[in-house]
Amino acid sequence: MRGPNYTKLFKQTISVYDQTTYKKTVYRNAFFDFRKVQNVDRTGSSEANTALIVVPGAAQPFRVGDKVMIGDGPVLADARAWAEFIPAKYSGLVVIRYVDPKYYRGALVHWEAGG
After folding, report:
1. In whole angstroms, what is the distance from residue 80 CA to residue 27 CA?
2. Residue 38: helix, strand or coil by DSSP?
3. Is the N or C terminus of the chain more exposed, i.e. has fewer CB atoms within 10 Å?
4. Which ranges in 58-102 belong to alpha helices (H)?
């Protein structure tokens, strides 16, 4: 069963870094969109940058805690390189905070994540 035809959106390259092995996997069929969100509370207004990441297919491409970078990112050699690989130092890098599988007519068609 095929999902909706929105493959025109999936033309970006992303690098997904597994948090346990530091291994990089490159996907060339992704959608990556930066967004700015605003929160208002008793102390006032604050803004934060976030991202929406979508990868088609049934295989889970990322988990909460993994890191995703737009483009073909660097190779991380070890735990020290992982610890230094943070959004404050690398533009286009996001730490995954949620992962959500999406279904169409009962079949898994893509994965969404954000951070």
Report:
1. 24
2. strand
3. N
4. 79-84
The answer to whether the CB of 14 falls within 8 A of the CB of 71 is yes
| Residue that wins the pLDDT comparison between 28 and 34 | 28
Mean pLDDT along residues 24-41 = 85
Q: Which residue has the higher pLDDT, 114 or 49?
A: 114
User: Burial level of 41, CB count in 10 A (0-12/13-18/19+)?
Assistant: exposed
pLDDT at 1 over 60: no
Please enumerate in sequence order all residues whose Cβ is within 8 A of that of 64, keeping only pairs 6 or more positions apart, or say none. Answer: 96, 97, 98, 99
Residue type, 58: A
| 59, pLDDT greater than 80 | yes
Which residue type does 89 have?
A: K
Indicate the pTM of the whole model: 0.84
- Of the two residues 47 and 21, the one the predictor is more confident about is 21
The total of other beta-carbon atoms located within 10 Å of residue 52's CB is 14
Q: Comparing C-alpha atoms, which of 87, 107, 82 is closest to residue 97?
A: 87
Helices within 5-74 (DSSP H only): none
